[in-house]
Write a structure and sequence with these properties.
Elements (H helix, E strand, L loop, with lengths): L14 H17 L4 H17 L4 H9 L1 E6 L2 E6 H27 L5 H26 L16 H10 L6 H25 L6 H19 L5 H18 L5 H9 L8 H24 L10 H16 L3 H25 L6 H8 L2 H27 L11 H11 L3 H11 L4 H31 L1
Antiparallel strand pairs: 1-2
Length: 458
């Protein structure tokens, strides 16, 4: 279903088609806005917090713990609903992050070494400084294992807040923040795999490596069928899951193996399209002279040509592009809100808030995200510019780097993800971490808005 922006010949549409289009087009326009994912994520968070502080809190706990999966004779694979979301659906999120990074490196904004070097420095500063601040507060406390919680950036929330301020910032800050958030997420999955893995099963890890090798061979052989990569990707996910390494790593590994080459080059595409359009135009003129039906569906030959044109366009695109386009909105409007719904709920009574805000875990997360993120991003970018290691995206000023640092302090989804892994056997620490993440994300978003508006006025 395509977004209807160009006028169409009304004779080609039935009344029913026009009614259906008028119903769905506003929904499409809503989904295609940049702020949609952030708004749904915020709504899911509010619902999660409300349920956690309501008489229905037990329902969510029972639903989270309910096991579901596949049973076949004596073989079964069952996981709690919360685990399916955290290890299964979030693997799709990291798959999308991997696709975005691969596309940007091969053909996007990250092709230029000078720009990518500054963005990598920003991502490193935004991970190292928050972790150091958290560690300084918690190194002698029971919460020391959560040092990676304030390192992450919530891409959807950060870009959503930036979209609300789009008229007050340069286009360069969007490039900078998006790329920095992608590298942050890549760093997060690397840390999860290295430091938050359970007992590693070498056999499953070797099987995962063998499956990845098959994926690369299939890519090299020129296979472009999405089902092949989907099935092999699921097998890869199963082996990574059983290896003890967090299963979300499978999404990132699968993205690396997705083909980024087209079947047709530019010259071949032009020749094919011109030939098909020429035949289509000739047949259309003949049908018009004979007074025949002008609808494509009513003309078998024309419909066949339209299908050939569609296949030619598909041959000029890559599986990487198609998967990314297909996944970006389902993940933004379904996967991330679902994760927030099942993970953001935290009791917020007066006593619990008082306990949480005096916890070193909460204080470390707030200090790491609110202070460490903008400080680390700004200092390392400043050093990179002074040492002429790289340059900022066109039109972006250094003052906007500080604003991007504040936006990077919105850790939310990824920070919640790491918190549940860090303290999976300590519910009270998870609650303290969630409180810190909620407060820090709100403070960071507010400071970012104030800073960007202030810089814009000056």
């Amino acid at each position: 279903m395509r977004n209807s922006k160009h006028p169409r010949d009304p004779t080609l549409q039935s009344l029913f088609e026009r009614k259906i289009e008028s119903f769905f087009t506003p929904l499409e326009n809503f989904v295609y806005k940049q702020t949609t994912a952030a708004l749904l994520l915020a709504l899911a968070t509010v619902v999660a917090v409300f349920l956690a502080n309501s008489p229905w809190a037990g329902i969510m706990k029972n639903l989270s713990a309910m096991e579901t999966g596949v049973v076949f004779h004596h073989w079964q694979f069952l996981l709690p609903v919360k685990e399916w979301i955290s290890s299964g659906l979030m693997a799709l999120f990291f798959f999308l992050i991997g696709l975005e990074l691969k596309r940007e490196v091969l053909a996007g904004r990250l092709r230029h070494p000078q720009q990518i070097s500054v963005i990598i420095l920003a991502a490193l500063g935004g991970m190292i400084f928050p972790a150091l601040i958290y560690w300084a507060i918690n190194h002698d406390a029971a919460g020391a294992h959560g040092w990676a919680i304030p390192m992450a950036t919530d891409t959807a929330f950060a870009i959503g807040v930036l979209a609300l301020l789009a008229r007050k910032v340069s286009y360069g800050i969007s490039i900078f923040l998006t790329a920095m958030a992608i590298f942050d997420d890549i760093g997060a999955i690397a840390i999860i795999s290295l430091f938050y893995a359970h007992e590693v099963q070498i056999g499953s890890l070797l099987l995962a490596a063998f499956t990845l090798a098959i994926l690369f061979m299939v890519n090299t052989a020129g296979v472009r069928n999405g089902w092949v990569y989907g099935l092999l990707g699921f097998v890869l996910w199963l082996f990574v899951f059983h290896s003890g390494v967090h299963a979300t790593l499978a999404g990132l590994l699968l993205a690396v193996a997705i083909p980024a080459r087209t079947r047709l080059g530019q010259t071949g595409f032009l020749q094919e399209i011109r030939g098909l359009l020429s035949i289509f135009e000739t047949r259309q003129s003949e049908r018009h002279e004979l007074g025949l039906d002008s609808r494509i569906l009513g003309a078998e030959g024309q419909h066949s040509l339209a299908t050939d044109i569609e296949e030619t366009i598909r041959a000029a695109s890559t599986p990487l592009q198609r998967w990314e386009t297909f996944l970006i909105y389902p993940i933004g409007i379904i996967v991330l809100p679902l994760f927030a719904l099942f993970n953001a709920g935290v009791p917020l009574s007066g006593q619990e808030i008082a306990t949480a805000v005096t916890s070193p875990v909460t204080l470390g997360i707030i200090a790491g995200l609110v202070i460490g993120k903008p400080l680390g991003v700004s200092l390392l970018v400043y050093a990179g510019l002074k040492l002429k290691i790289g340059k900022l995206p066109d039109g972006m000023r250094f003052k906007e780097v500080i604003g991007a640092g504040f936006l990077g302090g919105i850790g939310f989804t990824m920070s919640l993800f790491i918190a549940t892994l860090s303290f999976e056997h300590s519910p009270h620490m998870v609650d303290a971490a969630k409180t810190g993440i909620l407060f820090a994300s709100l403070i960071s978003a507010t400071l970012a808005c104030f800073w960007i508006i202030l810089v814009h006025k000056k």
